[in-house]
Amino acid sequence: IKHLEQELGIEVLIRSKTGVYLTEAGAYVVEFAKKIIAEEEMKALIYSYQQGQNFIETSYIYAGGQTMKFISEFLKRVDRNKLFITVKIENFIEKVEDIEEQLDKYLSILGIDYADSILLHTPKASKIPLEESYKELKRLVSIGKSRNVSASNLNIKELKMIVEELGIELFSFEGLYNLECKQNLSYSIPPLLNNK
């Protein structure tokens, strides 16, 4: 930072015994840097899209909503119909109606009419029983707000309840099993998904 201050000829930080604080000029430098970084990130995302990347998964909790706002800017520059967008409903929902309200908020921020898939990000932390939550996700698909239901962070018993008892065909499952982390093999999660 000292080097940057010398190069720019301004004081970016005020250093004192009580802490380090941005100067007015420092705040300007930070905002300018954020814009440059955002522009570079947008160029990278557009390049990725041009190379065939077509999957976006987002949640409002990522970077305090900034990620979702960034994606909304990206969606203005590309063909939304060539993308598959998964939206994660967060655990601060307290009643079933909150699920649709949260989804509507996310769709509005993203500037889209529907999500390609919807899931509960951390269902065990929700105050709503899992069965009620997934019935609501299924309803949201039936009215066109999402095209699919997915699952995240569930055990085999919970997955079977959703698939077998509620009759929901899950589009995807985001769990601890992947090519690098195979700890859930013993819980039969991949075979359950293969059977569907």
Characterise the protein shown here.
With 196 residues, the chain is of the alpha/beta class. The chain is built from 7 helices and 7 strands; from the N terminus they run αββαβαβαβαβαβα. The protein has helices at residues 2-8, 24-50, 66-75, 96-110, 130-142, 156-165, 189-194, and strands at residues 13-16, 19-22, 55-58, 84-89, 117-120, 149-152, 170-174. A 3-stranded parallel beta sheet has the order 3-4-5. It has a two-stranded antiparallel ribbon with strand order 1-2. Helix 4 links the parallel strand 4 and strand 5 (117-120). The radius of gyration is 21 Å and the shape is elongated. It starts with a helix and ends with a helix. The mean pLDDT is 87.
First-to-last CA distance? 55 Å
Relative strand content: 15-25%
Major β-sheet, in short? 3 strands, parallel
Count of DSSP H/I helices: 7
Class per helix and strand makeup: alpha/beta
Count of β-strands: 7
Within the largest sheet, what's the order of strands?
Answer: 3-4-5
The helix content, as a percent range, equals 40-55%
**Global mean pLDDT:** 87
Radius of gyration: 21 Å
Task: Reconstruct the topology from this structure.
Blueprint: H1 2-8, E1 13-16, E2 19-22, H2 24-50, E3 55-58, H3 66-75, E4 84-89, H4 96-110, E5 117-120, H5 130-142, E6 149-152, H6 156-165, E7 170-174, H7 189-194
Parallel strand pairs: 3-4, 4-5, 6-7
Antiparallel strand pairs: 1-2
Helix pairs in contact: 4-5
Structure in a nutshell:
The protein has 196 residues and is of the alpha/beta class. It has 7 helices and 7 strands, in the order H-E-E-H-E-H-E-H-E-H-E-H-E-H.
